[in-house]
Specification:
Length: about 90
């Protein structure tokens, strides 16, 4: 379905994964589907590709991540913002 919405994709290859890795990925997907928090990027869906033996996790697109913002000398965080980030 084409919506014109920009999303972020996380690609997971399944051609040579160990059973423990598959369990870990399944757990991650279950948690991400249930998670609903304003400070966590939402998992919008899953797409599989048999041709590339891959699974794509579809997320809302964010222009910046916290690490990128923290590394930027132009961005100054307030003390409450820093406390909130450290608490989470």
């Amino acid at each position: 379905m084409l919506t014109g919405k920009i999303v972020a994709l996380k690609k997971v290859r399944f051609d040579n994964l160990e059973p423990e890795s598959v369990k870990f990925m399944a757990r991650e997907i279950i948690i991400l589907r249930r998670l609903d928090h304003p400070n966590v990027v939402k998992l919008e869906g899953l797409v599989t590709s048999r041709m590339s033996l891959s699974l794509y996790l579809v997320f809302d697109y964010m222009v910046h991540d916290l690490a990128g913002l923290a590394a930027s000398p132009e961005i100054k965080f307030t003390e409450p913002q820093v406390r909130s980030s450290l608490f989470e």
